[in-house]
Structure of Aspartate aminotransferase family protein:
Amino acid sequence: MMDTPIAAMQPRRTLVLHRSSRLAPPMAVGGHGVWLVEQGGREVLDASGGAAVSCLGHQHPRIVAAIQAQAGKLCYAHTSFFTSEPAEALADELVGDAPGGLCQAYFVSGGSEAVEAALKLARQYFVEIGQTQRSHIVARRQSYHGNTLGALAAGGNAWRRAPYAPLLSPAFSHVSPAFAYREQRADEDEAGFVARLAAELEAEFQRLGPDTVAAFIAEPVVGATAGCVTAPAGYFQAVRAICDRHGALLILDEVMSGMGRTGTRHAWEQEGVAPNIQAVAKGLGGGYQPIGAVLVSERIVAAIEAGSGAFQHGHTYLAHPIACAAALEVQRVIREDRLLDNVIAMGGRLEEKLVERFGNHRHVGDIRGRGLFRAIELVADRATRDPFDPALQLNARIRKEAFARGLACYPSGGTADGRCGDHVLLAPPYIVSPAEVDLIVDRLGEAV
Ligand code: PMP
């Protein structure tokens, strides 16, 4: 059978299930650095970083070579019988120095799987130590933890949850997000805001029965549901204290905000607290292979070791050798090329340029984020912070205008439960240059 030439292929057989838009997408055929190349040759500046995964940009020669080398050596070996060199080396890279007490890694294929594993680990931990009554998970509204049923139940995105609500476990409940622009009252300062959020969380523990709560789960910097929302100072310390007081675990979902995106490998390093369980994905493999991981603290590992001896969970592709080899090389490049320095420097420049361009814009209410994880929030009225009518789909229209100008912005955009307005989110690769940062803001400016 003859191969169909690429030029003749229409993206029809994936269209309905892969895309929410009814427009036929262009075909991506290549990439280099921060640029994606379309069929026909047009180049698009990828300020979306893929899905905030492509931290090294596209077709990085070292990662391509690492994948090729591993594919020539070993592609698959069942994890019931074998471990592999790349899996062990990657675990060593991530938890070899036990950051924050996290001492073991469990590799899966993406963010949702990592969150599922984190939730089940928390539950299994309490079963192992005989606290079987601990089954509640407290999460936050306007959060995103993934699309599988457990992760979706943890998430607080009303729009995503709605069609599947009957399938979502009632073990999950939700408290207010630490979203100062939307939730902090005019008559309270930052400390007062944090105290109110802490009181609400404490009250939720009391409502459920503090000894029935297994874990609290949160994104250190909220990504796609709210647009790069950082927590106010002291918030995560207050959360950690409440979990500790009641013997519950803290799970941090760093799928989007982790692995360097905010300027430190883990976003929690900037909060002064460490989680008991952490989910990572996206930047872990840089988009070169599907991979996620759960990083787990000594206390949980020890309980499983002393108890049943194994995590009762598994996937066919866990610790896939090629995925682990790619992720290991991604992490080595980030370290050896000192790319977190560039995340901080270019993140600062991006913020500066966004403020320069949009700081006085009557429809930009907030410019926020950390590192190369930034968003602008669009408002109908700066003074009242009223959002635009969601029916306008302003963020989608801006993204479309930007794309027409050769700029890809992350496809997210608030209005999830009517509490936040539209936003445009930027998550460019860590290798972005000053000139490319300026071009991102120029093109976004034209689009807005
Ligand atoms: N958690 C967070 C914070 C995320 O941003 C995402 C993906 N956007 C996920 C979990 C789910 O990851 P995945 O899409 O790889 O399943």
User: Anything to note?
Assistant: Residues 352 and 359 are 9 Å apart (CA to CA). Residues 110-112, 115, 144-146, 219, 223-224, 253, 255-256, 281 surround 4'-deoxy-4'-aminopyridoxal-5'-phosphate (CB under 6 Å).
